[in-house]
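To illustrate the input format used throughout this study, we show a single complete record. The first block contains the structure-token representation of the backbone; no residue identities are included at this stage. The design step must infer an amino acid for every position from geometry alone.
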């Protein structure tokens, strides 16, 4: 009785909550160890944190302009498709589906499981099988919610954004109080040059940028945003500034209370911090951190399902995944598709190896997307954009991203080679399936039959109107 399409339900507050909820997740609670380990000292690690925040702001501003120039949802995928062409966009989609997104979701869900169980097993570490079981249960809950309702998943994101900021405040306040009392001993020799290892710096940046990653999430739901020309730039600027300030103060608090060796030795930095500084809240903060990770999982599923939805609509993914549930108005098939890969990575994965594994591919394609902004400006100088950044912003961001990606081959050649192989494996698939459209004689018939049966089972149909 009514048109089937994705409604415009993302207001400025919900866009801000989506960005805050995606950025402030597991990263600030697990990445300090990775940044410190690969930067060498407290001082250099703080420099890396600030540089990652500044770099994230450059990327967020570039994506805000792309979001006002290109009116489709889909984030990195649609920007690369519209500016650089179908081959690089398909390679991104291939790497994102088989490597980047499931690894990222596995990292966040494992952090959720670890922090959720930490109060029950302290001072011992939680058993690995139990962590993985709770991680999967949390991921499946978010998956179900996103399949059920856009409105409720957006409301959950808003509520959990408040929880995330509260968790940061509970870490920042006691650390600042100790610092004000003169406890600066952990900052002695903060910039000891002998501890700096240059070839490990890309891995430090990967860990830091992982904590900030999420500033691009608004671009994935562009078609569902209310007044996107105004709300995208406002949401990204306010949210990134908020997170930079929060992260810098949080790291200073960590080092004030714990010190270098304690941070490096801790499997869960935030829990170790609370054990030392705020024993009365020993069971509260880990739960707040776990809820923070829960919000990041929710934001990741919410946005990546839109990438698959748009890719299917553009003809680079099976047509089933551009369909919408007839009553719920959610992209149900696209939401459910990540279920098996994330499950597999949670069962076999380790947080820090997974982080290096997907960071290479992610930052390669983000760099290509901002390169696409430069290309788009050159090709369409007549196009009016309601939001425009100085040219040096996307140029600087692109150069730094691609340089870091190149340098990472020296830092972690095994993980990066696996990520590179995953990207390159998409070439023959693109050539056979998309470019040449070479199919086995029975394949189209079988594909249509399976699509029809799944469509009936899931109660989904094609979008009836285009909202871009």
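Output of the design step:
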């Amino acid at each position: 009785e009514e048109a089937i399409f994705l409604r415009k339900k993302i207001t400025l507050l919900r866009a801000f909550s989506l960005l805050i909820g995606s950025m402030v997740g597991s990263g600030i609670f697990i990445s300090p160890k990775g940044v410190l380990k690969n930067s060498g000292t407290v001082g250099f690690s703080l420099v890396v944190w600030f540089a990652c925040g500044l770099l994230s702001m450059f990327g967020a501003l570039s994506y805000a302009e792309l979001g006002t120039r290109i009116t489709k949802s889909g984030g990195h995928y649609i920007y690369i498709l519209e500016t650089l062409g179908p081959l690089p966009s398909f390679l991104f989609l291939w790497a994102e589906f088989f490597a980047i997104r499931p690894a990222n979701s596995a990292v966040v869900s494992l952090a959720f499981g670890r922090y959720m169980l930490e109060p029950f097993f302290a001072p011992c570490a939680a058993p690995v099988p139990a962590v993985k079981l709770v991680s999967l249960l949390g991921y499946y809950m978010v998956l179900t919610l996103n399949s059920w309702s856009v409105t409720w998943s957006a409301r959950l994101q808003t509520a959990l954004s408040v929880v995330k900021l509260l968790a940061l405040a509970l870490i920042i306040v006691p650390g600042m109080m100790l610092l004000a009392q003169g406890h600066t001993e952990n900052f002695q020799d903060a910039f000891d040059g002998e501890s700096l290892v240059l070839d490990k710096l890309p891995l430090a940046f990967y860990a830091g940028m992982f904590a900030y990653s999420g500033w691009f999430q608004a671009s994935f739901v562009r078609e569902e945003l209310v007044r996107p020309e105004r709300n995208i730039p406002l949401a990204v600027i306010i949210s990134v500034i908020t997170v930079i300030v929060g992260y810098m103060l949080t790291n200073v608090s960590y080092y004030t209370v714990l010190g270098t060796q304690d941070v490096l030795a801790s499997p869960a930095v935030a829990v170790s911090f609370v054990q030392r500084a705020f024993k009365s809240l020993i069971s509260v903060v880990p739960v707040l951190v776990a809820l923070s990770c829960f919000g990041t999982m929710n934001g990741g599923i919410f946005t990546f399902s839109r990438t698959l939805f748009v890719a299917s609509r553009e003809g680079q993914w099976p047509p089933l995944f551009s369909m919408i549930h007839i009553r719920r108005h959610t992209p149900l098939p696209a939401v459910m598709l990540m279920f098996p890969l994330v499950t597999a990575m949670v069962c076999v994965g380790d947080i820090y190896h997974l982080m290096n594994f997907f960071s290479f591919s992610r930052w390669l394609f983000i760099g290509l997307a901002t390169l696409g902004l430069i290309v788009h400006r050159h090709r369409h100088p007549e196009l009016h954009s309601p939001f425009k950044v100085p040219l040096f912003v996307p140029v600087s961001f692109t150069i730094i991203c691609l340089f870091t990606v190149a340098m990472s081959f020296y830092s972690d050649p095994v993980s990066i080679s696996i990520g590179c192989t995953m990207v390159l494996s998409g070439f023959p698939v693109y050539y056979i399936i998309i470019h040449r459209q070479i199919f086995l004689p029975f394949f189209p018939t079988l594909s249509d039959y399976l699509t029809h049966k799944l469509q009936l089972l899931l109660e989904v149909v094609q979008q009836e109107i285009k909202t871009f």
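Structural context for interpreting the output: Residues 164 and 359 are 23 Å apart (CA to CA). The longest strand covers residues 323-325.
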